[in-house]
Amino acid sequence: MNDGNKGPLIERRRLGGWMPEKEQIAAAFRQDLAAKARERASRTPLSSVVCDLAQLVHGDAVLRMNLSRAIGEALEAGYELGYRSIDELFPIIDYITSYVPPFSETAPVMTPLNAVLDWPMCMPSGYAVFRDPAFNAQLRRVLTYWCSFLTGPHSRSHLNANEPDGWFCEKAQQKMGLSQFVCSPGTPYWGFTSWNDFFTRRFREGMRPIADPDNHKIIVSACEASPFNVRTDIKETDEFWIKEQPYSLLDMLTEGERELARRFVGGSIYQGYLSASNYHRWHAPVAGRVVKAYNVDGTYYSDAEAEGEDPGGLNDSQGYTTAVAARAIIVIDADDASIGEIACVFVGMAEVSSCQVTVRPGQRVAKGDELGFFQYGGSTFCLLFRAGVIGTFCPKPPYHDDVPPLHVNAHLATAR
């Protein structure tokens, strides 16, 4: 929201608690991050992956122009970015590649690079930048480099019980329900080997029972996620970039899977979004055989200009991201022949784009078995069903931002 539609937005709608809603808090975070990045850059050279990103931008006149203009447009709109040029941006990106998010009860910034790019990416010149294939390929290398750091032992700096930013402090334990998870209080880092090991923590036995495990008509939630949308009569191709963001099967599943996409035409789709403190592993919604499992490269910070410079940002672009963002797709042929194939689409957004598939085609899974996980969090997921398969969905509209997540393995839908 803003004051009479004049000046920069002072508050942004945020799903999942990944970043603060108040722009003042986000701006202060960016300024602090930029100061630390400048200090580090004065004594440490940029990493090779960030140097490669800088060389790409400087070597592509159109990309350099659009990113420079996007930064300028955000500054002219009144936003405090912590940088005023592309050359000031790269040291900040480099600093983030060894950044470990602390716990914060009131002002979480779980996706710092998203916070840094928050406004340039939704400026008129920014849309082209964050859809550019070469730019996204280089961003993928940067995020992979950061992910490697978060998978190592030096990423455990906040895995302690220190107030106020330790992930095991009393307030963090209450917020995340840490007693539900496998961990070892009293041991160093509570037994976690890295930040990613902590973020992909597992529930203790019995914490998420499988709804009606022997009833094949009961379909369960594949993620611990809040309901976002249900659509029916989905099309093979549709204009996913418009305001309503209809789902476009061929774009979601890719051109190479045209026959697969056609089998879901006229069917239904359920979409849910993950929160920062949620469980981040994926589970089988039905028993059956895995027939396809593949990853799709895509964008990381692209949102739909149909949403405009509004409080939604990437949040309100969740339908759009299913067609363009980095994602993993797992197709299960259900044991119940009347259900047939279900396509599970796990979508990474922003930093949260490392989609790790742990099953392979030909493998049998029971309802509730693990399929994979998001490293460093999670974002959104979809389940696609063929026409006439679903009788009812348990979550009912309207879907509100403040609803608690539907538990993984909980009853999601009933097949006819």
UniProtKB/TrEMBL annotation:
InterPro entries (alphabetical): PS_Dcarbxylase, PsiD-like
Q: Which GO terms describe its molecular function?
A: phosphatidylserine decarboxylase activity
Sorted keywords for this record are: Decarboxylase, Lyase, Pyruvate, Zymogen
Pfam families for this protein: PS_Dcarbxylase (PF02666), PSDC (PF12588)
Biological process according to GO: phosphatidylethanolamine biosynthetic process
Domain L-tryptophan decarboxylase PsiD-like positions: 48-176
Q: What is this protein called?
A: Phosphatidylserine decarboxylase
Organism placement in taxonomy: Bacteria, Pseudomonadati, Pseudomonadota, Betaproteobacteria, Burkholderiales
